[in-house]
Structure formats: C-alpha cells, structure tokens
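WARN  no MSA supplied for this record, continuing single-sequence
INFO  ligand: zinc ion
INFO  echoing inputs
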Amino acid sequence: MVAKVLESDIGLKPCPFCGGFELHIETDSEPTSTVQVECDTPGCEASGPHGKDADEAARLWNRRAPADRIGKRPL
Ligand SMILES: [Zn+2]
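INFO  complex generated
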C-alpha cells in the first residue's frame, strides 16, 4: 500500500484540531482507493473524511474547519 500525495485547487483551511497549516492530501493506490486530507503537525496527525478525489477530500476537510475555529484549540 503506497500513499500518494495529491494536489487540489481548493485551498485547505487550517487543521480543526491543532490550527496547523502543514497539511497534505493523500490517497492509497488500491482499487478502492480513497482520498483524505492529513495534518502533518507532529503529535496531531489528524486525518479528514474520505472523498473520491482530492477536491472532494478538500471540501470535506474544509467543512470540518469553520472559520470561527481558526487559531483556536478545541476544548
Ligand atoms: Zn492538526
């Protein structure tokens, strides 16, 4: 199982968990491959909902990161 990093034209909002901007979009090269956004912050490494392509994964990720949460840690 080899993970592949993808690109999307959709800008990613910061991680809803750590507020970090170190994010990448990744897919597994399998027949049932799914795409998800992952946080690269050490100790966080949150991953977003699975989408069918990079754009969908980015949209799903952004839905979980409302603007009013930017820069705030979840309680
Ligand atoms: Zn994070």
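The two ends are 35 Å apart (CA to CA).
INFO  checksum written, moving to next record
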